[in-house]
Amino acid sequence: MFSFIARKSMVRAVALLLAAVVSAGCAASSGYPLMKIDVIDTQKLPGAVNETSGLFCTAGGAVTVNDSGNDAVLYFLNENGNITKKAQLDFPNKDIEAITANDRYFYIADIGNNRGNRNYVSVRQLDRQTYKKIKTFRLTYKGNTPSANTPYNHDYDAEALTVREDKLVLFSKSWDTEHARVYQIASSPKSQELTAVQVIKGLPGIITGADWDKANQRFIVVGYNSNLLGVLRPFIAVLASDYRVVSVSPLERFGQVEGICAKANGEIWLTQEKSPLQDARLIRLKIK
Q: Domain limits at 173?
């Protein structure tokens, strides 16, 4: 959520500002090849999804969810950003930050933990036809001590979840180290302690959205960093199947990007949350 800027420590903010000045751009600071992208279209989203926090592509468009402070609702969008259908869910929204799916199930990730004080986070499995809850995964992180965490300055927060084959893949935000951790969630048991299977170094900011692009056998992620003035510098990156960073590109015209998904036609769709400086938007682009 946008209010994190005002809450972080001055030391942390100064460090981010200095890093931004030295790097002179997020793609350059990453040290990875610059990705070329072509923005196809961008549409303002309706007020009902101003706090869009996750995105999953469907055959007819995409599905998004709002984060904390909103009801748990699935919003179905077309390519113009219009809401074509809504589905009320039968559980509360503590801090829903991501949505993904396979052929049978939606997975709704209530995993937001900016303050670091949650003892566990949840992923709910829903039937894709009825939207009814089938199962809840209760997740903890190995090594996490919530009482010892400093808000917006710890590594046990996440906003990005995707499905790859038979596993859910979760990417951490990692405020403290800035090295994203990758976790895999098994189909059982319901309660799991997560241990990182990989660490991603060198991205120019925190990850806020991810998708497994099956057609191209790659992960695509979005996120942002910020400076002392609260100006966000969003980016998009491609990761290989083993989580190696392949390429990175800044998203120059945009702000607080939160969701990303890959369409079957090769398009990449993003959603951007409303902020004091920008509207909530649906962004369609292609990676050249």
A: 4-287
Q: How many other C-beta atoms lie within 10 A of the C-beta of residue 130?
A: 9
CATH of the domain at 216: 2.120.10
Report how many domains make up the chain: 1
pLDDT average, residue stretch 180-192: 96
| Mean pLDDT computed over 251-262 | 96
pLDDT of residue 76: 98
pLDDT digits (tens, 9 = 90+) for 75-131: 999 999 999 999 999 999 999 999 999 999 999 999 999 999 999 999 999 999 999
Q: Residue 158 contacts by C-beta under 8 Å, 6 or more apart in sequence?
A: 97, 98, 109, 111, 112, 113, 121, 170, 171, 172, 173
DSSP string, 200-229: E---SSEEEEEEEEGGGTEEEEEEEEE-TT
Residue 27 phi, psi (nearest 5): -65, -40
Nearest to 112 by CA among 93, 131, 126, 125: 93
Which residue, 118, 161, 150, 145, is CA-closest to 4?
150
> Residues 109, 170: contact at Cβ < 8 Å?
yes
pLDDT at 13: 43
- For 179-185, the CB contacts below 8 A with 24+ separation are 179/155, 180/206, 180/207, 181/155, 182/243, 183/141, 185/123, 185/137, 185/139
Which residues are CB-contacts of 59 (< 8 A; sequence separation ≥ 6)?
Answer: 264
Q: What is the pLDDT of residues 173-182, one digit of tens each?
A: 999 999 999 9
CA torsion sign for 156, 50, 213, 94 is positive
How many C-alpha atoms does 1 have within 13 Å on its Cβ side? 16
